[in-house]
């Protein structure tokens, strides 16, 4: 077996990992529970973190759930406030950020560990899940595999994409590329069925997000024609609506709260596990279900009958169907096939409602739980250096108002980004070390004109090994629309020495909030060798 790269579908509620056997060319998905692993992290009393554990009898309070929904978001966002009870542990801001724009992702969101009393970021939680997937894949393959293609929703912002990459790097991966989930599903379908041309609508209903995408395939070239979706719409919404229906039904019968006299958080966790099982096994939405609450919440002795054919549930599914119809009607192309993917697409209402509204196109369930990771694995096998679909990158355009760079060992500014650069943007600096060291120190600076520069933030980058004097390094600077800066370091051979590190520029003069920062020492700061800045990531569209 020869496997150089694996494909990972990092999901909201469940994740899958696939690879292509280099000898047989067979696509294999690593066996979890039904080919997937729960996207959960459990905090243990002894301080350890246990990833990918299914919630059974454990209290919700020690679980970090739905990290994909939080990654790259602000702790102060309306989304976090409105869904705070769906993430398990209490949510807190990872590091108190003085930046006034509360919607900024500088206000990093995290989970409060009740045992260590520390806040663990959503990125770190995702990293623990990815590390677990890496270990499971390597156990099956038989040796270490560090390269991965990670899939993301089409509607992910750059903040969410770069945080996903950072999580993967923290887990020990070298991310070859990130790819849109629906495009990878179409890639799998077309490659497996030897299809070179066609127009596909992908109905991707996951646990935490819904994506609707039109993918056109012309002579094996993949074009994302249009996309729509809702980052706040997923199977979790159905679960929560069903939980509320049980709570309301209980109250209408007994005139008291279902959680009276019990630990509400623990009881809700147990009820959620039960509802997830009911949701997956539901065959008829109008069926009345008898619930023995003693089997769900041990302290309860009552039972109730409930039906989940309620407006709230139908409205959630109807929202996905309307988004799909709007997309197909507006694309100006005849759609050959609608592919239903994502675990929540298997909910009993989805397929019949989709077929009723979009009867002109054939609707097909295609490996709904595995097609995305299978596509990423195939992509890694066929295009080991990565591939980009035409118009496949979703960018939120903005322009930089000030030059942005760093201070070299002589105390002089080296500017990486210029005024009016279109964001997001990635550039790479070629540098040479001045001494043997395992740390790089500098100051991030910005400038309003050619003569004046101001200090924004001191940065210390810890390397994974000691670099020697005059060793050449590549430092990648990535700045996103929210003026969040990321730095990573590689050696000349491409070995990752330091994964992406966040630099919150909330003290930037862009917001007229300046602090006087001490200048860093000359210790180990790389001298700039090549003043040519190489733009690695732009708005250009690449084709196969």
How would you characterize the overall build of this protein?
The protein has 544 residues and is an alpha+beta fold. The chain is built from 10 helices and 30 strands. The strands form 8 sheets. Strands 1, 2, 3, 4, 11 and 12 form a 6-stranded mixed beta sheet that branches. Strands 15-14-13-18-19 form a 5-stranded mixed beta sheet, sandwiched between helices. Strands 29-28-27-24-30 form a 5-stranded antiparallel beta sheet, covered by helices on one side. Helix 3 (122-141) packs across helix 4. The radius of gyration is 25 Å and the shape is globular. Residues 392-397 and 507-544 have low confidence and may be disordered.
Give a quick precis of the structure:
The protein has helices at residues 67-70, 78-82, 122-141, 158-170, 181-192, 235-254, 264-281, 311-330, 350-357, 371-382, and strands at 5-9, 14-20, 27-29, 37-38, 41-43, 49-51, 63-64, 91-93, 109-112, 119-121, 147-152, 174-180, 198-205, 210-218, 221-230, 288-292, 303-307, 337-341, 362-365, 398-399, 403-407, 413-417, 422-423, 425-432, 437-447, 453-467, 472-479, 484-491, 496-504, 527-537.
């Amino acid at each position: 077996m020869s496997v150089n790269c694996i494909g990972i579908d990092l999901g909201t509620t469940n994740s899958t990992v696939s690879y292509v056997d280099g000898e047989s060319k067979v696509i294999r998905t690593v066996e979890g529970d039904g080919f997937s692993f729960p996207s959960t992290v459990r905090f243990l009393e002894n301080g350890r973190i246990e990833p990918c554990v299914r919630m059974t009898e454990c209290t919700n309070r020690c679980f970090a759930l739905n990290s994909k929904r939080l990654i790259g978001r602000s702790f102060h966002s309306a989304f976090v406030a409105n869904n705070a009870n769906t993430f398990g542990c209490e949510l807190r801001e990872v590091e108190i950020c003085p930046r006034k724009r509360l919607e900024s992702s500088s206000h990093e969101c995290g989970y409060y560990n009740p045992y260590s009393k520390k806040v663990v970021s959503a990125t770190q939680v995702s990293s623990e899940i990815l590390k677990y997937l890496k270990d499971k894949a390597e156990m099956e393959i038989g040796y270490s595999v560090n390269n991965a293609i990670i899939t993301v929703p089409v509607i992910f912002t750059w903040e969410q994409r770069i945080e996903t990459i950072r999580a993967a790097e923290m887990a020990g991966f070298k991310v070859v590329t990130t790819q849109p989930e629906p495009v990878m599903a179409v890639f799998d379908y077309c490659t497996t069925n030897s299809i070179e041309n066609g127009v596909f609508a992908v109905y991707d209903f996951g646990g935490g997000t819904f994506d609707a995408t039109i993918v056109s395939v012309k002579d094996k070239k993949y074009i994302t024609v249009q996309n729509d979706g809702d980052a706040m719409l997923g199977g979790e919404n159905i679960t929560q609506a069903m939980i509320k229906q049980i709570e309301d039904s209980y109250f209408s019968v007994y005139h008291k709260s279902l959680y009276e006299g019990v630990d509400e958080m623990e009881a809700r966790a147990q009820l959620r596990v039960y509802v997830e099982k009911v949701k997956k096994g539901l065959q008829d939405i109008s069926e009345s279900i008898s619930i023995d609450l003693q089997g769900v919440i041990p302290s309860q002795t009552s039972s109730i009958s409930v039906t989940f054919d309620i407006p709230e549930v139908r409205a959630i599914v109807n929202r996905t169907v309307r988004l799909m119809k709007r997309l197909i009607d507006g694309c100006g192309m005849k759609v050959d096939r609608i592919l239903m993917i994502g675990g929540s697409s298997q909910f009993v209402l989805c397929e019949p409602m989709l077929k009723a509204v979009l009867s002109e196109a054939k609707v097909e369930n295609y490996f709904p739980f595995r097609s995305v990771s299978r596509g990423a694995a195939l992509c890694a096998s066929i295009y080991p250096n990565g591939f980009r679909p035409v118009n496949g990158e979703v960018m939120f355009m903005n322009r930089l108002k000030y030059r942005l760079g760093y201070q070299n060992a002589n105390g002089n500014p080296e500017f990486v980004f210029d005024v009016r650069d279109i964001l997001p943007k990635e550039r790479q600096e070629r540098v040479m070390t001045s001494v043997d060291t395992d740390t790089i120190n500098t100051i991030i600076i910005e400038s309003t004109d050619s003569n004046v520069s101001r200090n924004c933030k001191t940065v210390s980058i810890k390397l994974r090994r000691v670099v020697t004097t005059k060793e050449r390094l590549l430092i990648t600077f990535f700045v996103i629309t929210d003026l969040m800066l990321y730095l990573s370091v590689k050696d000349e051979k491409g070995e990752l020495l330091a994964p992406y590190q966040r630099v919150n520029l909330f003290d930037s003069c862009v917001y007229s909030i300046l602090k006087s920062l001490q200048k860093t020492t000359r210790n180990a700061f790389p001298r700039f060798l090549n003043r040519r800045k190489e733009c690695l990531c732009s708005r250009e569209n690449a084709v196969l």
